[in-house]
Amino acid sequence: MTTLRSVSLIGAPTDIGAGARGASMGPEALRVADLAAALQSHGVDVLDRGNLSGPSNPWLPPVDGYRHLNEVTAWNQTVHDAVYAELKTGRMPILLGGDHCLGLGSISAVARHCRDVGKKLRVLWLDAHADFNTSALTPSGNIHGMPVACLCGFGPQQLIEIGGKVPAISPKWVRQIGIRSVDAGEKRFVNEQELEVFDMRYIDEMGMRHTMELALATLDANTHLHVSFDVDFLDPDIAPGVGTTVPGGPTYREAQLCMEMIADTGFLASLDVMELNPALDLQNKTAKVAVDLIESLFGKSTLMRK
User: Where along this sequence does the record place binding of Mn(2+) 2 (predicted)?
Assistant: First the structure.
Protein backbone atom coordinates (compact mmCIF):
# COMPACT_ATOMS: atom_id res chain seq x y z
CA MET A 1 0.00 0.00 0.00
CA THR A 2 1.71 3.20 -1.09
CA THR A 3 0.30 6.66 -0.72
CA LEU A 4 1.60 9.89 -2.16
CA ARG A 5 3.45 11.47 0.70
CA SER A 6 5.11 14.75 1.43
CA VAL A 7 8.45 14.28 3.12
CA SER A 8 10.83 16.79 4.67
CA LEU A 9 14.50 15.88 5.07
CA ILE A 10 16.08 17.44 8.16
CA GLY A 11 19.83 17.13 8.62
CA ALA A 12 21.23 17.04 12.16
CA PRO A 13 25.00 17.04 11.63
CA THR A 14 26.34 16.25 15.08
CA ASP A 15 28.14 13.44 16.89
CA ILE A 16 27.61 15.16 20.23
CA GLY A 17 26.29 12.05 22.02
CA ALA A 18 28.62 9.49 20.45
CA GLY A 19 31.89 7.86 21.49
CA ALA A 20 33.46 8.24 18.03
CA ARG A 21 33.61 11.30 15.80
CA GLY A 22 32.12 11.24 12.30
CA ALA A 23 28.33 10.78 12.56
CA SER A 24 28.15 14.54 12.04
CA MET A 25 28.88 13.81 8.36
CA GLY A 26 25.97 11.37 8.08
CA PRO A 27 23.36 13.74 6.59
CA GLU A 28 25.67 14.74 3.74
CA ALA A 29 26.57 11.11 2.99
CA LEU A 30 22.85 10.28 2.65
CA ARG A 31 22.41 13.21 0.28
CA VAL A 32 25.45 12.12 -1.76
CA ALA A 33 23.83 8.66 -1.98
CA ASP A 34 20.85 10.40 -3.63
CA LEU A 35 18.21 9.91 -0.95
CA ALA A 36 15.94 12.67 -2.31
CA ALA A 37 15.98 11.32 -5.87
CA ALA A 38 15.37 7.76 -4.62
CA LEU A 39 12.25 8.89 -2.76
CA GLN A 40 11.04 11.03 -5.66
CA SER A 41 11.21 7.97 -7.90
CA HIS A 42 8.41 6.52 -5.75
CA GLY A 43 6.16 9.53 -6.21
CA VAL A 44 7.11 11.11 -2.92
CA ASP A 45 7.15 14.90 -2.69
CA VAL A 46 10.55 15.68 -1.11
CA LEU A 47 11.62 18.94 0.47
CA ASP A 48 15.18 19.11 1.81
CA ARG A 49 15.15 21.55 4.71
CA GLY A 50 18.96 21.54 4.87
CA ASN A 51 20.84 21.13 8.13
CA LEU A 52 19.95 22.27 11.62
CA SER A 53 22.71 24.00 13.53
CA GLY A 54 23.79 23.60 17.11
CA PRO A 55 26.82 23.65 19.37
CA SER A 56 30.02 22.06 18.10
CA ASN A 57 31.42 18.93 19.78
CA PRO A 58 33.85 19.93 22.55
CA TRP A 59 35.01 16.29 22.92
CA LEU A 60 35.24 16.41 26.71
CA PRO A 61 35.06 13.67 29.38
CA PRO A 62 31.77 13.09 31.24
CA VAL A 63 30.66 15.42 34.02
CA ASP A 64 28.47 13.81 36.72
CA GLY A 65 27.90 10.79 34.46
CA TYR A 66 26.98 12.61 31.24
CA ARG A 67 29.13 13.77 28.34
CA HIS A 68 28.23 17.08 26.72
CA LEU A 69 24.87 17.30 28.53
CA ASN A 70 24.19 20.95 27.72
CA GLU A 71 25.17 20.54 24.06
CA VAL A 72 23.07 17.36 23.78
CA THR A 73 20.12 19.23 25.28
CA ALA A 74 20.52 22.10 22.82
CA TRP A 75 20.67 19.78 19.81
CA ASN A 76 17.68 17.74 20.96
CA GLN A 77 15.60 20.86 21.59
CA THR A 78 16.41 22.06 18.06
CA VAL A 79 15.54 18.65 16.58
CA HIS A 80 12.31 18.53 18.61
CA ASP A 81 11.22 21.93 17.31
CA ALA A 82 12.05 21.09 13.67
CA VAL A 83 10.31 17.69 13.70
CA TYR A 84 7.28 19.07 15.52
CA ALA A 85 6.95 21.92 13.01
CA GLU A 86 6.92 19.48 10.06
CA LEU A 87 4.28 17.27 11.68
CA LYS A 88 2.08 20.30 12.33
CA THR A 89 2.11 21.14 8.62
CA GLY A 90 1.19 17.57 7.70
CA ARG A 91 4.57 16.64 6.23
CA MET A 92 6.50 13.53 7.20
CA PRO A 93 9.82 14.36 8.86
CA ILE A 94 12.87 12.25 8.04
CA LEU A 95 15.64 13.12 10.46
CA LEU A 96 19.09 12.51 9.00
CA GLY A 97 21.51 11.95 11.88
CA GLY A 98 23.78 12.47 13.54
CA ASP A 99 24.13 10.17 16.49
CA HIS A 100 21.22 8.39 18.11
CA CYS A 101 20.95 10.68 21.14
CA LEU A 102 18.84 12.81 18.74
CA GLY A 103 16.12 10.14 18.80
CA LEU A 104 15.11 11.83 22.04
CA GLY A 105 14.31 15.14 20.37
CA SER A 106 12.67 13.49 17.39
CA ILE A 107 10.45 11.01 19.25
CA SER A 108 9.48 13.48 21.98
CA ALA A 109 8.21 15.74 19.17
CA VAL A 110 6.30 12.86 17.60
CA ALA A 111 4.77 11.99 20.98
CA ARG A 112 3.75 15.61 21.47
CA HIS A 113 2.13 15.66 18.03
CA CYS A 114 0.27 12.42 18.85
CA ARG A 115 -1.08 14.03 22.05
CA ASP A 116 -2.22 17.03 20.00
CA VAL A 117 -4.14 14.98 17.43
CA GLY A 118 -5.29 12.11 19.66
CA LYS A 119 -3.28 9.37 17.98
CA LYS A 120 -1.61 6.32 19.48
CA LEU A 121 2.14 6.03 19.00
CA ARG A 122 4.18 2.97 18.06
CA VAL A 123 7.96 3.27 17.94
CA LEU A 124 10.07 0.69 16.11
CA TRP A 125 13.65 1.00 17.37
CA LEU A 126 15.89 -0.76 14.83
CA ASP A 127 19.28 -0.98 16.51
CA ALA A 128 22.08 -3.27 17.70
CA HIS A 129 21.74 -1.55 21.09
CA ALA A 130 18.80 -1.03 23.44
CA ASP A 131 19.95 2.55 24.21
CA PHE A 132 18.31 2.19 27.61
CA ASN A 133 21.27 3.20 29.73
CA THR A 134 21.40 5.73 32.54
CA SER A 135 24.42 7.51 34.00
CA ALA A 136 24.34 4.94 36.82
CA LEU A 137 24.60 2.06 34.32
CA THR A 138 27.17 3.27 31.81
CA PRO A 139 30.75 4.35 32.55
CA SER A 140 31.21 6.12 29.20
CA GLY A 141 28.60 8.82 29.80
CA ASN A 142 27.84 8.82 26.04
CA ILE A 143 24.24 9.95 25.76
CA HIS A 144 23.64 8.12 22.46
CA GLY A 145 23.28 5.03 24.69
CA MET A 146 20.47 6.66 26.71
CA PRO A 147 17.71 8.11 24.49
CA VAL A 148 15.08 5.40 25.03
CA ALA A 149 15.57 5.60 28.80
CA CYS A 150 15.28 9.39 28.64
CA LEU A 151 12.09 9.17 26.58
CA CYS A 152 10.67 6.85 29.24
CA GLY A 153 11.50 9.39 31.95
CA PHE A 154 14.85 8.08 33.20
CA GLY A 155 17.57 10.67 32.79
CA PRO A 156 18.61 14.23 33.59
CA GLN A 157 15.73 16.68 34.07
CA GLN A 158 16.71 18.93 31.16
CA LEU A 159 16.58 16.00 28.73
CA ILE A 160 13.48 14.16 29.90
CA GLU A 161 11.26 17.26 29.76
CA ILE A 162 12.09 18.35 26.18
CA GLY A 163 8.76 17.24 24.71
CA GLY A 164 6.76 19.03 27.40
CA LYS A 165 5.56 15.90 29.19
CA VAL A 166 7.44 13.47 31.45
CA PRO A 167 7.71 10.70 30.52
CA ALA A 168 7.39 11.50 26.82
CA ILE A 169 6.42 7.91 26.00
CA SER A 170 5.55 4.64 27.69
CA PRO A 171 7.92 1.69 27.25
CA LYS A 172 4.82 -0.23 26.09
CA TRP A 173 4.78 1.78 22.86
CA VAL A 174 8.27 0.64 21.83
CA ARG A 175 9.34 -2.45 19.90
CA GLN A 176 13.09 -2.94 19.69
CA ILE A 177 14.39 -5.06 16.82
CA GLY A 178 17.87 -6.43 16.07
CA ILE A 179 19.28 -5.90 19.56
CA ARG A 180 22.51 -7.79 20.27
CA SER A 181 24.69 -5.62 22.51
CA VAL A 182 23.29 -4.77 25.94
CA ASP A 183 25.19 -4.10 29.16
CA ALA A 184 24.32 -6.31 32.14
CA GLY A 185 22.79 -3.52 34.22
CA GLU A 186 20.95 -2.20 31.18
CA LYS A 187 19.51 -5.67 30.53
CA ARG A 188 18.04 -5.78 34.04
CA PHE A 189 16.60 -2.30 33.60
CA VAL A 190 15.04 -3.16 30.21
CA ASN A 191 13.39 -6.20 31.78
CA GLU A 192 12.13 -4.20 34.78
CA GLN A 193 10.52 -1.67 32.44
CA GLU A 194 9.01 -4.46 30.30
CA LEU A 195 10.37 -3.10 27.04
CA GLU A 196 9.43 -5.43 24.18
CA VAL A 197 12.71 -6.55 22.61
CA PHE A 198 13.11 -8.78 19.56
CA ASP A 199 16.81 -9.52 19.83
CA MET A 200 18.91 -11.35 17.25
CA ARG A 201 18.40 -14.67 18.98
CA TYR A 202 14.65 -14.19 18.61
CA ILE A 203 15.04 -13.25 14.94
CA ASP A 204 17.30 -16.29 14.37
CA GLU A 205 14.80 -18.62 16.01
CA MET A 206 11.54 -17.19 14.73
CA GLY A 207 12.55 -15.40 11.53
CA MET A 208 12.15 -11.76 10.53
CA ARG A 209 8.64 -12.25 9.20
CA HIS A 210 7.26 -13.49 12.52
CA THR A 211 9.23 -10.81 14.38
CA MET A 212 7.75 -8.02 12.26
CA GLU A 213 4.22 -9.45 12.45
CA LEU A 214 4.43 -9.17 16.24
CA ALA A 215 6.16 -5.78 16.21
CA LEU A 216 3.47 -4.39 13.90
CA ALA A 217 0.51 -6.13 15.55
CA THR A 218 -2.53 -4.07 16.60
CA LEU A 219 -1.62 -1.05 14.46
CA ASP A 220 -4.61 0.77 13.06
CA ALA A 221 -5.47 3.96 11.19
CA ASN A 222 -5.27 5.88 14.47
CA THR A 223 -1.65 4.85 15.06
CA HIS A 224 1.33 7.02 14.23
CA LEU A 225 4.18 4.66 13.34
CA HIS A 226 7.65 6.06 13.96
CA VAL A 227 10.76 4.18 12.84
CA SER A 228 14.08 5.03 14.46
CA PHE A 229 16.65 3.32 12.23
CA ASP A 230 20.16 3.15 13.66
CA VAL A 231 22.34 2.00 10.78
CA ASP A 232 24.26 -0.29 13.19
CA PHE A 233 21.07 -2.39 13.23
CA LEU A 234 22.50 -3.92 10.05
CA ASP A 235 25.24 -6.50 9.98
CA PRO A 236 28.63 -4.74 9.64
CA ASP A 237 29.34 -6.85 6.54
CA ILE A 238 26.79 -4.75 4.65
CA ALA A 239 27.03 -1.59 6.77
CA PRO A 240 30.58 -0.97 8.01
CA GLY A 241 30.16 2.81 8.32
CA VAL A 242 29.06 3.06 11.95
CA GLY A 243 30.95 3.92 15.14
CA THR A 244 29.72 0.94 17.14
CA THR A 245 29.71 -2.12 14.89
CA VAL A 246 28.32 -5.31 16.41
CA PRO A 247 28.64 -8.51 14.35
CA GLY A 248 25.66 -10.76 13.80
CA GLY A 249 23.05 -8.26 12.66
CA PRO A 250 20.27 -8.68 10.10
CA THR A 251 21.35 -9.55 6.57
CA TYR A 252 20.42 -7.43 3.59
CA ARG A 253 17.46 -9.70 2.83
CA GLU A 254 16.20 -9.68 6.42
CA ALA A 255 16.48 -5.90 6.56
CA GLN A 256 14.61 -5.59 3.25
CA LEU A 257 11.79 -7.77 4.56
CA CYS A 258 11.64 -5.70 7.74
CA MET A 259 11.30 -2.46 5.76
CA GLU A 260 8.84 -3.89 3.22
CA MET A 261 6.55 -5.15 5.99
CA ILE A 262 6.62 -1.71 7.61
CA ALA A 263 5.73 -0.17 4.23
CA ASP A 264 2.89 -2.66 3.77
CA THR A 265 1.09 -1.27 6.83
CA GLY A 266 0.75 2.16 5.22
CA PHE A 267 1.11 3.75 8.66
CA LEU A 268 4.72 4.99 8.59
CA ALA A 269 4.51 8.64 9.63
CA SER A 270 8.03 9.68 10.72
CA LEU A 271 11.56 8.34 10.45
CA ASP A 272 15.03 8.77 11.95
CA VAL A 273 18.14 7.54 10.10
CA MET A 274 20.94 7.59 12.65
CA GLU A 275 24.60 6.86 13.37
CA LEU A 276 25.82 6.73 9.77
CA ASN A 277 29.53 7.51 10.02
CA PRO A 278 31.14 8.09 6.60
CA ALA A 279 34.59 8.43 8.22
CA LEU A 280 34.44 4.68 8.95
CA ASP A 281 32.72 3.69 5.70
CA LEU A 282 34.00 2.21 2.43
CA GLN A 283 33.15 4.41 -0.57
CA ASN A 284 29.82 5.46 0.97
CA LYS A 285 28.65 1.82 0.87
CA THR A 286 26.66 2.11 4.10
CA ALA A 287 24.83 5.25 3.00
CA LYS A 288 23.86 3.54 -0.26
CA VAL A 289 22.47 0.53 1.62
CA ALA A 290 20.61 2.85 3.97
CA VAL A 291 19.05 4.75 1.05
CA ASP A 292 18.10 1.45 -0.56
CA LEU A 293 16.33 0.33 2.62
CA ILE A 294 14.62 3.70 3.07
CA GLU A 295 13.29 3.28 -0.49
CA SER A 296 11.75 0.00 0.65
CA LEU A 297 9.96 1.88 3.45
CA PHE A 298 8.37 3.95 0.68
CA GLY A 299 7.17 1.11 -1.50
CA LYS A 300 10.13 -0.29 -3.38
CA SER A 301 9.43 -4.00 -3.26
CA THR A 302 11.03 -7.22 -4.40
CA LEU A 303 7.59 -8.80 -4.77
CA MET A 304 6.74 -10.17 -8.19
CA ARG A 305 3.36 -11.65 -7.36
CA LYS A 306 0.26 -9.53 -7.91
Answer: 232
